Amino acid sequence: MSLTKAERTIITSMWSKISTQADTIGTEALERLFASYPQTKTYFPHFDLNPGSAQLRAHGSKVLAAVGEAVKSIDNIAGALSKLSELHAYILRVDPVNFKLLSHCLLVTVALHFPADFTADAHAAWDKFLSVVSSVLTEKYR
Amino acid sequence: MVLSAADKAAVRALWKKLSNNVGVYATEALERTFLAFPSTKTYFFHLDLSPGSAQVKAHGKKVADALTLAVDHMDDLPRALSALSDLHAHKLRVDPVNFKLLTHCLLVTLARHFPGDFSPTLQASLDKFLSDVVLALASSYH
């Protein structure tokens, strides 16, 4: 799966808006993930996952920063996220199914914050982009 | 998945807010589904799927009516949706994996239009409810 020129344009232009609220969006996406899919909390026994927790905010920030890295290197996402890919494969070992769940929650959050920008085309482009990111993060599992 | 009293109340409250516009949102969800997940178009060769199509709008209304029926029968979904389940299983022959794609797009659509209401808790209740609807729809497959 590779992104078309049009899709890359949509993603990079929307990112300039999303990045202004990166921390909020990252944190909210995680809150939604833990609320809708409690099984995802099993990867965070070491965190205080209550809404508003500092650890949740810090982690939301991390997640969106990684998305930002992928956007910046949209022509070479695998290269940009290579370290993260190894982290998830060898240390975190998050079951791949969970990336779909987080992607879903990220899209819901972005739609909520940017209703006018999140057209059907933008939605399709972002879904594809997050699928690519998820693939990269799970490609070294075996 | 068992819906708590709070889940049901949350879904009913949102549905009241949607009032006569359920069709509008269902149509948008369909449009997003066709764009983000083109494989879903395979079931609609008989429809004009171009943006703004009257046929998609008409289909959105059908989906909306079915969802409203489900909201009105949350305690008895399998029975209320049994005819629809038979239809999808034996006549339409829709792979149940596609139901998840549509419900994802529905959640994104509702988040866009009701940002103030669409808390993580509401999203979780809606997600649970829609999972139950999907389960009821997929029950006639064998």
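The radius of gyration of chain B is 15 Å.
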